[in-house]
Amino acid sequence: MQPSDSVMNLRQVFVTVLMFGVAGLLLFMYLQAWIEEHPTASGEKLQQQIINQDSKLPHPEELATAPKYQSAAANLNKRRTTVIMGRHSQEKASPLGEIASSLVSRLSEQQKMTEAFLKQQVNLSPVMRPLNKSLIKDDRWKNIDEAQEKRRYFLYDFCKKYSSENRLRTHLVRMVSRIYVEDRHKILYCEVPKAGCSNWKRILMVLNGLASSAYSISHDAVHYGKHLKKLDSYDLKGIQTRLNTYTKTIFVRDPMERLVSAFRDKFEHPNSYYHPVFGKAIIKKYRLNAHEEALKTGSGVKFKEFVRYLLDSQRPVGMDIHWEQISRLCYPCLINYDFIGKFETLEEDANYFLQLIGAPAELKFPNFKDRHSSDERTNMEVVRQYLKELSDTERQLTYDFYYLDYLMFNYTMPIV
Ligand SMILES: *[C@@H]1O[C@H](CO)[C@@H](O)[C@H](O)[C@H]1NC(C)=O
Ligand SMILES: *[C@@H]1O[C@H](CO)[C@@H](O)[C@H](O)[C@H]1NC(C)=O
Predict the structure, then answer these.
(1) Eight-class DSSP state of 75
(2) Helix (H, G, I), strand (E, B), or coil: what is residue 357?
(3) So where are the chain's domains?
(4) Can you tell me where the transmembrane regions are (predicted)?
């Protein structure tokens, strides 16, 4: 064999290896871009999986934050970091480095474009639009309107101060993933669980012509039916147009009330998703000498155990939208909500909002509680009883956990 032949062979082998490397990288990037653009598609696949495994349908919201999905996302992120680091170390040594680095720069250009879009649309100059009150004819809404304007200015001022330094950065699609669309009356509603969201979805379905009365829609139809569209199901232009022209609303609730309400709803009643998925992991990690039965079923989680999980930087299971901070569900400083309702004045706020957007006069916000309706509603007195189970430090840390929600919506920590 001639020496030049073996050099050729080596070269060929090297080139082949390079080509495979580049092809793999391209495939990986394509998949990653695809996954990022199709969060709902993977969610649906997961939903299908869970439906196949489990005869009782899980709440669709539960799927978005299901641990499987989260750990897949975490792995993806880990992989992405590894790959990028690997690329950098190869950059100088081989032509693959050059190709890879041009790919990386193209990818980061994409990211920059998304960021530029964010800045331009919602981030840079958060102008507060005046509420269009041309449909309000009488002054029985005067007090509610004054409270509304105060809240709007309060949040606006807070965001101006807060955002200058600490801008929340996120993908546009993720940012709007909890927002429901009602095209007839041009409404965007960001869903905050445990703050009247089931009844809000009922109202949106009626406004959209999907039902004739809010009272005729069962809890399951509200949450499992695929009737209302989410904002992230539109293309960039569709999202942009709606963000700029629709009336955007959010309904919030005192953070501790929301937390206790979520705990009572998910852990104090039989639940085929929260007990096996969250309950088991919580009891395993935070209960000393747990009984075998409790470890097996995940039932009987105590509020204190639940809070220890919430505050743990190494949670054995991920977060869940029912106790996720509102600031991370709805991004109130990025999306300039036009109308801020509060659970504490839910019916008045909601009915005023319905007037503003020109809903049919007979449509009123329903006042029923459709889950565990015999339980006492979670009010401040109930919350205090639960908070008493915590130490002072745990209470303070829980407050810190919801700090932004407290600040944005002018809530104060309850005195226990
Ligand atoms: C306010 O709402 C009314 C009724 O929907 C509409 O005709 C009018 O154009 C709106 N005004 C502005 C400034 O958007
Ligand atoms: C904020 O809350 C305090 C205490 O509840 C209240 O007195 C004040 O009016 C609120 N401010 C706004 C802007 O709503």
Answers:
(1) H
(2) coil
(3) 3-123, 139-253+339-376
(4) 12-35
